[in-house]
Input
Amino acid sequence: MTKLRERKHNRKAVLRVLYGAVERNRLQVNGAALQAELGLPDEDLSAACEYLADEGLISVDWTSHRTPATVSLTHEGIRLMEEQEEERGQDGSAELPLE
Output
C-alpha cells in the first residue's frame, strides 16, 4: 500500500506533467508516455488518475486493463494549476491542495 505522502506526490506529479503539456498546446497525454515520464507502477498511476478524475481535475480514457490510455486536464484542472502558478510567484513554494 502506497503511503499518503507518496499518493499526494503522485497526484501532484500527474498534474504538473499535464499542465506542462497544456503549456505546449498538447491537449492529451498518452497514458504510457505519462507513466514513462513519471516512472510510476500501473497501480500507482491508475490510483492517482482515478482520484484526480473524481475531483474533476482531469479526464481519463481508460484501457480495458483499467490503466490510463489518454489523460488530459479539465477546465477546472487548468484553473487550479494557473492559480498555483500565480500564487507560487518567484519562490515556487505554494502547495497543491490535494488532501
